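forwarding from the other thread:

> can someone predict this with pyridoxal-5'-phosphate?

sure thing
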Amino acid sequence: VTIDWASSVDLLVDLGTGTGRRAALERALRAAIRDGRLRPDDRLPSTRALAHDLGLARGTVAEAYAQLAAEGYLRTRPGAPTRVAAWARSPGARAHPRPREAASTTAGRRPRPPERPRPPRHDLRVGLPDVGAFPRGAWLGALRRALASAPDAALNARDVGGRPELRTALAAYLGRTRGVLADPERIVICSGFTQGLALLCRTLGGTLAMEDPCLAELREVARDAGVRVARLEVDESGARPELPAGATAALLTPAHQFPLGGTLAPERRAAFVAWARASGGVVIEDDYDGEFRYDRQPAGALQGLDPEHVVYGGTASKTLAPGLRLGWLVLPDRLLGPVLDAKHVTGGTQTLDQLALAELLRSGAYDRQVRRMRQRYRRRRDLLLELLAGRRTHGIAAGQQLVVEVDSEARTLQRAAERDLALEPLGRFWHAPEGRPQGLVLGYAAPPEHDYRATLAALADVLS
Ligand SMILES: Cc1ncc(COP(=O)(O)O)c(C=O)c1O
């Protein structure tokens, strides 16, 4: 549909034909803003007008606007038209010439420098640890030591499965802290768990059963890598071991279900492993935040039950920083070769950072960082729960996120945008959000430490 945008541009909005029209509209608007077809301060049509043009329910358009406002792309104010936020344009965006009449009104003015996306004032989105606590000094020291002793060969990109120094250090660490049965030879280092999942999907093909809800981005990665995605129902005891017919693999978050926060019950762990043995299927264990349990020892990795049928996946994204792009897979023997072949095509992972991480693990600095952050996140979670007293929340004392139910995600996001607080709606994570409980997934690790109380105050305002 081509819409004559009231301001000055025609905008092509392609919603496709499938379900998920709200998500498609959000994607189309984000793309238009990013590549400059919609520009800072451009006025968007009213929700009523756009809903009419696109044949959507007005509520769907309102929810899409609220989501983009929460992400910082749009600016909404009660009683005023919705506009593209002044900063909402990526630095690399293509310049898009304005139509002649519009350009003439700005003649004589100095051209404005390109606008950079401005981060929100407060941020409680998921997937973001407190990167202000990254151990810069320890990392620098580790990198210096690693580089001083690394063989020249470490600077080649031959070790497509990862540097032996890191695989050896990880095997010891994962065995000691997570009960993973890890032979260094069975470990493949990848660019985050995300790349590991893509490699597995390309290797396994078929149908991947994914928890509902789950991390939306991983669903997209799996589809993009060519597998069909099926649903696994989730409750407070984790995923139900009711595998859809034809499933060839199941992706689970056993230690701390993402995002609802349950832990996989022991009989369910056994049932998933029994399914994999009987069917020849594979369980993929996403242990994204297994180090962070606050009330007791975390449950050991599921992989320890049956390393020939469970792939273990881990990451440095929660313990150190997502920007490192370092993750790892511990693979059954039969999958090692095929996954390495897939990795070969994709390319290796930067070796110097691998060496630094190996050094951090060997020296004990990694353990110290995890212990320090465990205390910090536990305190943050306690403060957040105090604020949410009386509301319905979900999740064990673990990780970096918790879910609170709300009456309306759209209204809550709208209020949050007015307070310049970025929030994550639970709706994004369901395979299909219709008829599901509405909520927020609060990522309490994201704010810098000095701003945490102010962020909670903003949240209190939004929820009041
Ligand atoms: C559920 C889940 N799995 C995995 C990851 C880690 O992804 P990566 O290692 O690619 O950063 C995340 C990070 O946000 C996550 O939330």
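Residues 127, 192-194, 215, 253, 258, 286, 288, 315, 317, 322, 327 surround pyridoxal-5'-phosphate (CB under 6 Å). thats all i got for now
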